[in-house]
Write a structure and sequence with these properties.
Length: about 500
């Protein structure tokens, strides 16, 4: 936990604090190297050079990958065209409020630990421990799924099909390290696709993780939150709509539990229309998208385990970075665990894919529910310490209703997504896959709480100060003096005057 000096509350403003936390000693958390060069590998800070466009591309790159292009076929197979529209639209609404909650806290306190650190500060350190490992597991599982997907998709071409699936997994493992009716099954199909929607939307919260490495999070994070959400919603809901029109839910080429190979619904549609050149081109785009998504998955997994290691919640060696600020040990560790993708070689590819999707989907709902809880507790801390909302750089829309709704919805989906295991006949295998993460999460939380004797954080004692970028306050004052602040205001006025078509273009294209 970071240590800070008590802010000057009597003066009605924040004191200039010197922060000593998991990233080393530095004034105001501005990312300067630690004072002791001998501690550089384990305490050197990550660089703070990310701009809004970088944050958006990391988040979008992690979301638009095998889930959108291949997993959408599995969703269509399970729920049919109407079912996937319902599930993806509803989960999209949940994502909106989760992003609002995360954005409010991450903009004010942009730290690399993000909601994992917030859980420790505002709720209980044991929750931070369980959440950190759950979130790391989520992205390792997503990464393994991406290895599985790309090893299947690339074999669409006859020349690539002669190479065994396990060989393609190894090839891309090395590449990733180097780069860093309308309803198919009534309400049951919709229930199954909620977990797929959760997994495919997972990554929007990357904005919070990257906030700690943003040059100016007060500008970059709110802009990224707005644009990433709308772009993802348009891409996903739009994709579900069009594949529902183009393909029947029972197309034999769609990825399903009995599938040994898989193709994208877009590729299948073009092939069925006799546009083979277009199908091949789309398949090439998918391969590139999966590589991009793999890099984003490794980025988040490594940053999460880096924070855990530097806070005593994971082996210390995982917190090591090189002099360029790259957490190379965490990268290798995360990629090593993603080798569970090799399970797909000895079993049905579709069965393994569905299991990975379900496990990561449940983890996603747990993470999103915790983000909402953290936001609720953060607001309680502000109230208990008499801090006005006017001091927040970004405020969540429709609080508290949106946050409480998203929290309740995520908790509901954690249990609802697997209820089909109880249908006649009862499926022990589906029950274990759907719910195994719940007892594991509870064991991690309770075990760490008993071991470390952690306590629930009282609102009046919350640390709502450490990690604030007071250097940005000085920068804003300087810009106001130089007239740059007025330029920003002019930009906002220009945005408000734009027609709705130009606004849509700006959101979708940039």
């Amino acid at each position: 936990m970071a240590i800070r000096e008590k802010p000057d509350m009597a003066a009605g403003k924040e004191a200039q604090t010197t922060v000593k936390d998991d990233m080393g000693s530095r004034p105001n958390g501005d990312g300067l190297p630690p004072l002791d060069d001998g501690e550089v590998p384990y305490s050197a800070p990550l660089h703070r050079k990310l701009k809004s466009r970088h944050i958006q591309m990391i988040a979008i790159g992690g979301i638009i990958g095998p889930g959108l292009f291949v997993g959408s076929g599995n969703a269509l197979h399970l729920a049919g065209p109407a079912g996937i529209l319902i599930s993806f639209s509803l989960v999209g609404i949940i994502v909106f409020f989760v992003m609002q909650s995360l954005g409010e806290v991450a903009t004010l306190i942009p730290v690399s630990g993000s909601f994992t650190e917030y859980a420790s500060r505002f709720v209980d350190d044991s929750l931070s421990f369980a959440l950190g490992w759950a979130y790391w597991y989520l992205w390792v599982t997503v990464l393994a799924n991406e290895y599985n997907a790309i090893s299947l998709v690339i074999r669409y071409w006859a020349g690539a099909a002669v190479v065994p699936q396990w060989a393609w997994i190894i090839i891309f493992w090395v590449i990733f390290v180097g780069f860093t009716g309308a309803f198919a099954d009534s309400i049951n199909g919709v229930a199954r696709t909620f977990v797929i929607a959760g997994t495919l939307y997972a990554g929007t919260e990357m904005v919070g993780i990257t906030a700690g490495e943003a040059g100016n999070p007060r500008r970059a994070v709110p802009r990224a939150i707005r644009q990433v959400f709308w772009r993802i919603l348009i891409f996903y809901v739009g994709m579900m709509f069009f594949i529902g029109i183009l393909l029947p839910w029972n197309d034999p080429d769609l990825l399903s539990a009995g599938a040994k190979t898989a193709a994208s619904p877009l590729t299948i549609a073009l092939s069925n229309a006799g546009i083979n050149a277009g199908a091949s081109l789309i398949n090439a785009v998918i391969v590139i998208a999966v590589i991009s998504a793999g890099n984003s998955s490794l980025y988040v997994a490594s940053r999460t385990i880096l924070f855990m290691a530097r806070n005593g919640k994971a082996p210390k060696i995982l917190g090591k970075v090189n002099r360029s600020g790259v957490p190379w040990v965490a990268l290798l560790f995360s990629n090593l665990f993603a080798c569970i993708a090799f399970l797909s070689v000895s079993d049905s590819a579709g069965t393994v894919y569905e299991a990975l999707i379900t496990l990561s989907g449940v983890a996603t709902f747990i993470v999103w529910a915790t983000i909402c809880l953290v936001h609720i507790r953060f607001r309680a801390g502000l109230a208990a310490q008499s801090q006005p909302l006017s001091g927040l750089p970004f405020t969540a829309l429709w609080y508290p209703y949106g946050t409480y709704l998203a929290f309740a919805a995520n908790v509901f989906l954690i249990f609802f997504q697997g209820y089909t295991a109880f249908l006649n006949p009862f499926s022990a295998k589906d029950f274990v896959i759907n719910y195994i993460l719940l007892p594991v999460f509870v064991i991690l939380l309770v075990g760490y709480k008993v071991w470390k004797k952690t306590k629930w954080v009282k609102a009046a004692e919350m640390d709502i100060w450490t990690g604030r970028r007071t250097d940005l306050d000085d920068e804003k004052k300087r810009e106001d003096v130089e007239g740059l602040g007025r330029a920003e205001d002019d930009g906002e006025r220009t945005w408000r005057k734009k027609g709705w078509l130009k606004k849509v273009k700006n959101v979708v294209i940039g």
